[in-house]
Batch of 2 targets.
Target 1
Amino acid sequence: MKKTVAGLLVASFVVATIAPAHAAEAKKGGVEGFLSGCCLGARTAADYNTEGTGEREFVPWLLVGCCLGGRTQIDYAQGKDIHWRDWGRLIPYAGVVFAVWDGLDGANGVTRPGIAETYGSTYY
């Protein structure tokens, strides 16, 4: 477990030095979109691709999301249903496939309106 956490931290710092993302810029996709989707889920990747990180730098924004939870809990509290892609992350081993899938969606620039159009507004 310690090696996994250390590896994630090293990867975050490498990404921070290679491709720093500034908060005011709402970039779509790319490495930051992939990391957002892979680590935090499709909802967060879509939000990142739509709004950026607000007034925050990318790496602290990503680390806070990894430690404190993703966007699904907030959406659920606001009345959205939990989608089957969210449940898929809970399946041992198969959850990695869903994480990579979310990461690829984020890297391709999927936005919140786009994902809501695909899967329905009751979920996203």
Target 2
Amino acid sequence: MDRRQFSALLLASGLARESAAAAPWRLATGYRAESFHTVNLLAMARDVAGSTQGELRIEVHPNNTLVKLKDMRAAVEAGTVEAGETIMSGLVGEMP
């Protein structure tokens, strides 16, 4: 799946909300800003903004600055952040 397909899937999944234009989504990641993971997330954020004509904006927060990697799932579930990216092997204890 390429970035544009993923962006379309994100929107088609009903993740866009009415207040999206008012406040950007905060996407937390534990990876450093220079890593390819974060570079890809930034590209996805640009694609989403373009695909929605700015209706949905995503701010990427790298380096564990917003949420620590180990706390990512809980933070998203609690609504502390709108989105988070984590390594699946870190969730084995919660989702075997």
